[in-house]
Amino acid sequence: MPNGATSLLWFIAVIALIPLALWLLKRTRLAGSTGGGGAMRMISVLPLAPGQRLVTVEVGSGEERRWLVLGVTAQNINTLHSMLPQAAPEPGAPAAPAFAQLLGGLRKNGDER
Q: What phi, psi does 23 have (nearest 5°)?
């Protein structure tokens, strides 16, 4: 086999292996995905208006962990606040009363006077 034909076969083999390598990279954690054990996770999302959200994310690990409150729009992401991580409520724990419930309680107390 001439030298040019051997080079062409190697070239074709390398080109054929590229999709396989990309598929393997996508299937493994080598792609840099931050699945369960990543250094960043979303804590909560609060939609404000179409295209506008308030997002709380946890970044870092160990003593360097921080929660960032981000204002997210279609054009920008702004850091609004940074704080130490808060304790997440335990499943089944009673939720904090909603603002409407607090306001209703204040109205009832005001009517009794």
A: -65, -45
